[in-house]
Amino acid sequence: MHRPDPERLKAVAEMKPPITKKQLRQVLGMFSYYRAYVDRFSEHAKPLTDLTDGQKPAILKWGNTEQRAFETLRRFVCETPVCAVPVPVKPFSLYTDACAVMVGCQLAQYDDSGVEHPVAFASHKLTATQCAWLVIEREAYAVVWALSRFRNIIFGAQISVFADHNSLKYLSESMLKSAKLTRWSLALQEYDLVLKYTRGTCNFVADCLSRVDMD
């Protein structure tokens, strides 16, 4: 059986444990997205979900039990049958998100049974200059960066890009307002794209990868 390239899973495999309750909820949102693949998910996740209780402090009290639970769920996400080897030419789904200091993304593909599997994960820290960009610019950059990051996998296939609606509109309608936007818009023309809106609350994986430190 083929296994996915470990480099494509690095963003998840090297993800650090959350420090705050807010970060933990983001991590649990990502893990829960794949709960159908994880036997006894609720049992494995319980030490982590217990920390989200309203009476628990905002800064997590992290011990060995919580660390084991985190590592177990992280390992499940990085192992088959969750992750798939990409099939050239078949359509892909690309989920992107950005925060103040990072961008994150997930590349996925449907199998012959109509089940969506992640193919690769990635995250990228923004430079000081990029951190100063407008929120909408960072969101737009996340799309462009993710396409470039996975170009060798996705080029030539149809790609459905799921991101904040405003960022996609910003790229498609504002391309002549600056050299930066012009470059980004031209970069998009290389790909067979279907741009789709998704609410941030539904974009669990990319949201998590853009907000929890991987370094």
**What is the ordering of alpha helices and beta strands?**
HHHHEEEHHHEHHEH
Shape: globular
Q: What is the CATH level 1 assignment of the largest domain? A: Alpha Beta
- Over all CA atoms, what is the radius of gyration? 18 Å
**Number of DSSP strands?**
5
Class of secondary structure makeup:
alpha/beta
The H-level CATH homologous superfamily of the largest domain, spelled out, is Ribonuclease H-like superfamily/Ribonuclease H
Number of domains: 2
Tally the helices: 10
Percent in helix: 40-55%
Task: Briefly note the CATH topology name of the largest domain.
Answer: Nucleotidyltransferase, domain 5
Write down the overall mean pLDDT.
Answer: 86
The CATH architecture classification of the largest domain is: 2-Layer Sandwich
Strand order of the largest sheet: 3-2-1-4-5
Low-confidence stretches: none
First-residue to last-residue Cα separation: 31 Å
Strand content: 15-25%
Largest sheet: 5 strands, mixed
Would you write up a description of this structure?
It is a single chain. This protein has two domains: 6-78, Alpha-Beta Plaits, CATH 3.30.70; 92-209, Ribonuclease H-like superfamily/Ribonuclease H (Nucleotidyltransferase, domain 5), CATH 3.30.420. The chain is built from ten helices and five strands; from the N terminus they run H-H-H-H-E-E-E-H-H-H-E-H-H-E-H. The protein is globular, with a radius of gyration of 18 Å. Helix content is 41%, strand content 18%. With 215 residues, the protein is α/β, with parallel strands linked by helices.
